[in-house]
Design a protein that fits this description.
Oligomer: heterodimer
Family (chain A): Belongs to the peptidase M16 family.
Number of helices of chain B: 16
Protein name (chain A): M16 family metallopeptidase
Order of helices and strands of chain A: EEEHHEEHHHHHEHEEHHEEHHHHHE
Pfam families (chain B): Peptidase_M16 (PF00675), Peptidase_M16_C (PF05193)
Number of strands of chain B: 12
Strand content of chain B: 15-25%
InterPro entries (chain B): Metalloenz_LuxS/M16 (IPR011249), MPP/UQCRC_Complex (IPR050361), Pept_M16_N (IPR011765), Peptidase_M16_C (IPR007863)
Structural class of chain A: alpha+beta
Shape of chain B: globular
GO molecular function, one term (chain B): metal ion binding
Distance between the termini of chain A: 59 Å
CATH superfamily of the largest domain in chain B: Metalloenzyme, LuxS/M16 peptidase-like
Strand order of the largest sheet of chain A: 1-2-6-3-5-4
Structural class of chain B: alpha+beta
Distance between the termini of chain B: 64 Å
């Protein structure tokens, strides 16, 4: 196994308009991944406009000056490609993987919607995609048991006005109020070449990609000043635990325990990543061993812990467990809290640490095993750390984490008085 | 300067080649491998002829419970020691089950694959299967299914399957069983099923850098202590189409969306129309640009997404459409979906639509077959359906060669809008009258 987490070439340039271009050539398969990170996410949304960054992502597929409505998907799929986009609190990414001979098509499509979306944006398109997004909210958050947990956790973790206070999907009321002018302004403000990173990985040479990037994106003007999101780096400590109990149509009690930790990409968050794996990944994890196996409080398939990789504020650790038949929500919450507390007091053994690092190594190389996985990672590091080559440092940083660092982090960041606990209880049935 | 208005054409295509396939008989079993030079990760997948289709009627869920029970300790170590040993290699034991096969796999850095396959074999061939553990795992699995069935979808799918294939048949019941069938299994059912189907050698699928792997050693580890040969697979099932359309209404009070599962029986996997059927399904409901998604999502805004396809296993197949639509538009969404299926059957596909569908399906072979996991899955298709090494190359050619006449004929032959079963899982009190008013078919009610 290589010492670096990214043993492939990386070449970068910056166009005159500020667009950063990252290329990693790999001729293994005749496919190429094209990925754009725009440094705008739901953290930029003011009050009353929650859900706008994500709804805007939908509008980016609905046509631009030289691309008719519905043509974007048709051209990429008609070229044999896969495509999608995602929005999270930090950023919005757009990506397609195509047979290599269609690289130029993909770049043309991305340039057209970066530079020419606004004139093509219509009220009809906005109304249609608003309905689609409201259905997405129903399908993913409202119509499934526990589906709104994330919507409830964020405001418990981050105070009003904090960029992570609200969820990316937004509120129905705000979505209903969205008007066309706001979206036109949103594009003009944030979808500028100097607020984006274009990454191309796979069957293409850097010189060729740089020339094509200049050809297609070079004419798009830079924007002078792009407004920053509110600064969320400092979150005042609550000083007392926060607990919320929800009675809903759920099949069993479920507990979410959450803590604010460190921003993604910091040494503290590397420790947190290993800690979360020790705590909640796999049958050898502490949660499984203690709660699913040992005391048998929790259903074995539904225990877990993970960090949410957010960059611009102390990122959350989420720990979850669902009660076995006959176990109360209260008993389960106490059990989860006990296991979390012990991270500070019961030292992580060498075997626990090795197990976590081995699982993380596999997860890392799994992401690296596709050109699209690599393109997204390079785009992230170029956007959030100013240098795609820093991607190579993440895996070695995880592998260097020690048991002492885990205990220190637990003592500092996982204190009971900083804990958020969300408990779902089933409605009484007749 | 301005944006470039002219859409660029394609460059020179470099041909896609599926990785070199190696097939080797080892220690009484068969190894099928793909060479991925330079790849740091490797996958090994043991494929057993122990799919849901092998479960007796009334014993649905045997495979799903056994999948969990394999990790409850082995002849050599207890459950905790086993978990720590395999996870220390960087993998969990991943199990999978479909109608035709049972799969157990590991994914690790290439130099650890030998050790991981030894642990995989230890769990599959020599699990402890202690009766008390089996009862607990069975109860946990029944609970897990109850949790899953609280989501929209599983109940609708079970209702569709029973109506298409008949609940008196194993293939008319849920693939993983249901909460009641699992709760009724006893430990002896599980040990008998294990001894019948898990001790035959099966096939070891390997995807990785073969220059750094010893296939003979991997095969020897996977097949140690096994016996018995392959068991013949029964022929395709003859599934009659329903004489008329009907609506099955599955009540889920309080739903803000209605979950739609529409379908009818369709040919099995080896049917000669497989490729034109797949393309007809792609035009109708397979791609984002499909007729159904365009109409129901992009024009009407009724849903976040709607998909339809032909799916098949060795013995049977089905055409199905699935979606979740806002409660208030359940009836119009259903009418429009049935209308689109009817139009596609009657009018076939256009060259413009087909061009997208065949390029997409062909291009996906190079775009999606990258990771060791994806390559292992492709090898599994070769083994289960007895296909040649050059299957993926040939499939690409037959996709690209399919013309409008072939695909329209497949749509006309294999789509049956008049025989559709329309399962709607939602708030019955709110949607029942409107569904009745559509005249799409009689309504059959299913209560929680």
């Amino acid at each position: 196994m290589p010492d670096s987490g990214f043993p492939w070439p990386i070449e970068t340039t910056r166009l005159d308009n500020g667009l950063r271009v990252v290329v990693s050539e790999d001729r293994t398969a005749p496919a190429v991944a094209v990925n754009l990170w725009y440094d705008v996410g739901s953290r930029h949304e003011p009050d009353g406009q929650t859900g706008f960054a994500h709804l805007f992502e939908h509008l980016m597929f609905e046509g631009s000056v030289n691309v008719a409505k519905t043509e974007h998907m048709k051209l990429v799929q008609g070229a044999g490609g896969s495509l999608n986009a995602t929005t999270n609190p930090d950023r919005t990414n757009y990506f397609e993987t195509v047979p290599a001979e269609h690289l130029e098509l993909a770049l043309w499509l991305e340039a057209d919607r970066m530079g020419g979306l606004v004139p093509a944006l219509t009220q009809e398109t906005l109304d249609n995609q608003r309905d689609v997004v409201k259905n997405e909210r129903r399908q993913r958050y409202e119509n499934v048991p526990y589906g709104d947990a994330w919507l409830r956790l964020l405001p418990l973790l981050y105070p009003p006005g904090h960029p992570y206070h609200h969820a990316t999907i937004g509120s129905m009321a705000d979505l209903n109020a969205a008007d066309l002018a706001t979206f036109q302004a949103f594009h003009r403000t944030y979808y500028a070449p100097n607020n984006a990173v274009l990454t191309v990985v796979g069957d293409a040479a850097a010189t060729e990609v740089f020339a094509l990037a200049d050809k297609y994106f070079g004419a798009i003007p830079a924007r002078e000043s792009i407004p920053a999101a509110p600064d969320g780096r400092h979150v005042p400590r609550a000083g007392a635990p926060v607990a919320e109990t929800v009675t809903a149509a759920v099949p069993a009690p479920r507990v979410f325990v959450a803590h604010r930790t460190h921003p993604f990409g910091t040494p503290g968050y590397d420790v947190l990543t290993v800690l979360a794996t020790v705590l909640g990944s796999g049958r050898g994890s502490r949660l499984y061993q203690r709660l699913a196996d040992g005391e048998r409080l929790a259903q074995p398939d539904l225990v877990g812990a993970y960090g949410v990789d957010l960059r611009h504020a102390p990122a959350p650790l989420i720990v979850t467990a669902t009660a076995r038949d006959g176990v109360t929500g209260e008993r389960l919450a106490a059990g989860v809290a006990e296991v979390v507390d012990e991270l500070a007091t019961v030292p992580v053994t060498a075997a626990e640490l090795d197990r976590a690092k081995a699982l993380l190594s596999t997860a890392w190389w799994r992401q690296m095993s596709t050109v699209d996985g690599r393109a997204d990672i390079l785009g992230r590091y170029a956007t959030q750390f100013g240098d795609p080559a820093k991607a190579a440092e993440r895996l070695p940083a995880w592998l260097a984490v020690t048991a002492d660092q885990i205990a220190e982090l637990a003592a500092e960041a996982l204190r009971a008085e900083d804990r958020v606990t969300l408990t779902y209880l089933p409605e009484e049935t007749a | 300067m301005s944006l470039i208005a002219d859409r660029p054409g394609p460059g020179l295509a470099r041909p896609y080649r599926f990785p070199q396939v190696v097939r080797r008989d080892v220690a009484g079993g068969r190894v099928v491998a793909a060479h991925l030079p330079g790849q740091n990760l490797a996958v090994a997948l043991l494929l057993l002829d122990a799919g849901a289709g092998r479960e007796p009627v009334g014993r649905e869920g045997l495979g799903a419970v056994l999948a969990k029970a394999l990790e409850e300790g082995t002849a050599q170590r207890d459950a905790t020691a086993y978990a720590l040993a395999i996870e220390a290699l960087g993998t969990e034991l991943v199990t999978g089950l479909d109608w035709d096969s049972f799969q157990v796999s590991v994914q690790v850095p290439v130099e650890r694959l030998g050790a991981a396959v030894e642990l995989l074999a230890e769990a599959v061939r020599t699990p402890k299967l202690d009766p008390d553990d089996l009862r607990r795992v069975r109860d946990d699995e029944a609970t897990a299914l109850r949790m899953d069935w609280a989501n929209p979808g599983p109940r609708a799918e079970a209702a569709l399957r029973a109506d298409l294939f008949g609940a008196q048949n194993r293939w008319g019941r849920p693939m993983y069983g249901d909460p009641d069938s699992v709760a009724a299994l006893d430990p002896e059912d599980l040990t008998v099923f294990h001894s019948e189907w898990f001790l035959r050698p099966g096939t070891l699928v390997v995807a990785g850098d073969l220059d750094r792997l010893d296939l003979d050693a991997l095969g020897a580890a996977a097949f140690a202590g096994t016996g018995g040969g392959p068991t013949p697979v029964e022929g395709p099932v003859d599934v009659p189409l329903r004489a008329g359309r009907r609506i099955i209404l599955v009540d889920r009070p309080g739903s803000v969306q209605s979950t739609l599962r529409l379908g009818h029986a369709a040919p099995h996997r080896a049917h000669p129309d497989h490729v034109p059927m797949a393309l007809a399904g792609t035009v109708l409901g397979g791609a984002f640009t499909s007729r159904l998604n365009h109409l129901i999502r992009e024009v009407r805004g009724y849903t976040y997404g709607i998909r339809g396809d032909f799916a098949s296993s060795r013995r049977f197949g089905r055409f199905a459409v699935s979606s979740g639509v806002q409660t208030a538009v359940t009836a119009p969404a259903l009418v429009e979906a049935v209308g689109e299926i009817t139009r596609t059957r009657a009018g076939g596909v256009t060259e413009d639509e087909l061009a997208v569908a065949r390029s997409w399906r062909a291009g996906q072979l190079s775009v999606e077959l990258q990771s060791p996991r994806a390559i292992a899955s492709a090898l599994t298709t070769l083994v289960v359906h007895d296909l040649p090494d050059d299957y993926h190359a040939r499939r690409r050619e037959s996709l690209l060669a399919a013309d409008v006449a072939d695909v329209s004929a497949a749509a006309a032959t294999h789509l049956h809008p008049e025989s559709l079963t329309l399962v709607v899982e939602g708030d019955a009190a709110l949607i029942r009258d409107e569904l009745a008013a559509t005249g799409l078919g009689e309504i059959v009610d299913v209560r929680p």
